[in-house]
Specification:
Elements (H helix, E strand, L loop, with lengths): L26 H8 L26 E7 L4 H4 L4 H16 L4 E4 L5 H8 L4 E3 L9 H4 L2 E4 L5 E5 L4 H4 L9 H9 L3 E3 L9 E3 L4 E5 H4 L10 H12 L3 E5 L16 E5 L2 E6 L7 H14 L10 E6 L21 E3 L2 E5 L4 H14 L4 E5 L2 H5 L9 E4 L2
Parallel strand pairs: 1-2, 2-3, 5-6, 8-9, 11-12, 14-15
Antiparallel strand pairs: 1-16, 4-5, 7-8, 10-11, 13-14
Keywords: Hydrolase, Signal
Protein name: Agmatine deiminase family protein
Organism: Streptomyces anulatus
């Protein structure tokens, strides 16, 4: 789950931006889990060396993977139905452009099929805890010669902040379903924590990955090497990030994205915004504009203006209003709108300019935004080999 750019902290009600909310962990259990160095489906081991790498996200896809939330312990009885409706809307929209496979628990598969419709394939053979497929699903890699494999990032509930017994095994189960080789990376992380340009360069926040709740005792040098080994890369552009203010510890994919090798995008706050996430976004922009790619080339960085939180529909203090958390599927860009009509239109215009050969679909996913996530957070692409 991915969370950036809130207005102010809140203490009211169950919310995905919280650490231990209604997540199915007791305080004692969470404290015990936090000292564990690894969690996941299989013993951590380095992916096989070779030409495999995670491609940039604008490549053609075989399908999109999603997951169906059904836990009232996580979401609360008054919130779950709205979250499910937003997941179904995203799934139906993506399915207009490419196949969507949605993993649902057996008890809730019928409801998922009812809301998603016949265009979405719902399977009940891969159990899930929650809907954040970007973080729980496998990271698929290609070799440029028809080969495809998958890497698991040893999902541990964003540093053992949420129950994740089922989600810890989603990556390997999807790889098995897809019929591709699977390995586990030698670090703990989530797909939303790492952006790749497909040509050797990654970007990430230290607050999320260089963190004792994921990778205790690991140095930045070692973590950089392990990330590059898993993604088939050779360079990581690091941002400091924001520690301890959301469940993800500041995932990069709601602020900065790669468009192509040597091209990136950063969602910028208003000039008057002065919270920690606004400063984080400005730092990411400064670092990216001064960085080079793995090949040594300059970085061209596009500014994507974020909305005015005083003009959006939601008044929830933890709402995530990230245009940057869009999803690329075949021939389309699926992004959110938030009710700031001027900013919504400007974001759509920017994405249309950046992706001129794709339709730009803007969706109202305010319930998901109130839960601290976005469209990229709940989708995971399987690229064409």
């Amino acid at each position: 789950m991915n969370t950036e750019t809130p207005r102010t902290p809140s203490t009211s009600g169950p919310n995905r931006r919280r650490f231990l909310t209604a997540a199915g962990l007791t305080a004692a259990g969470a404290a015990l889990a936090a000292v564990q160095s690894r969690a996941g489906a299989a013993p951590a081991r380095r992916p096989a060396a070779g030409a495999f790498r995670v491609p940039v996200e604008d490549v053609r896809h075989t399908r999109t993977w999603m997951a169906w939330p059904d836990s009232t312990a996580i979401w609360g009885r008054g919130t779950l139905a709205g979250i499910q409706a937003d997941i179904a809307l995203i799934a139906r929209t993506v399915a207009r452009y490419e196949p969507v496979v949605l993993c649902a628990n057996s008890a809730s598969a019928a409801r998922a099929r009812s809301l998603c419709g016949t265009s979405v394939t719902v399977i009940s053979s891969i159990p899930v805890d929650d809907c954040w497929m970007r973080d729980t699903g496998p990271v698929f890699r290609t070799d440029g010669a028809g080969g495809l494999d998958a890497v698991g990032l040893n999902f541990n509930g964003w540093g053992n902040k949420q129950a994740h017994r089922k989600d810890a095994r989603v990556a390997e189960h999807i790889a098995s379903y897809a019929g591709v080789p699977f390995t586990s990376a030698d670090f703990v992380g989530e797909g939303g924590a790492i952006e790749q340009d497909g040509a050797g360069t990654l970007m990430a926040t230290r607050s999320s990955l260089l963190n004792g709740n994921r990778n205790p005792g690991m140095s930045e040098r070692t973590l950089t090497a392990e990330m590059c080994a898993a993604y088939g890369a050779s360079k990581v552009i690091w941002f400091d990030g924001v520690y301890g203010q959301d469940i993800t510890d500041d995932h990069v994919d709601a602020t900065s994205r790669f468009l192509a090798p040597g091209e990136a995008l950063v969602q910028m706050p208003l000039a008057t915004d002065d919270d920690a996430y606004a400063e984080d976004a400005r730092q990411q922009y400064r670092i990216l504009t001064g960085s080079t790619t793995a090949a040594g080339g300059p970085m061209d960085v596009t500014r994507l203006q974020g909305p005015d939180y005083d003009r959006i529909r939601s008044t929830h203090p933890d709402f995530l209003a990230s245009y940057a958390n869009y999803y690329l599927c075949n021939d389309a860009v699926i992004c959110a709108h938030f009710g700031d009509s001027r900013a919504d239109a400007a974001a759509k215009a920017t994405l249309t300019r950046l992706y001129p050969d794709r339709a730009v679909e803007q969706l109202n996913i305010d319930r998901l935004g109130t839960g601290g996530g976005g469209i990229h957070c709940v989708t995971q692409q399987q690229p064409v080999p």
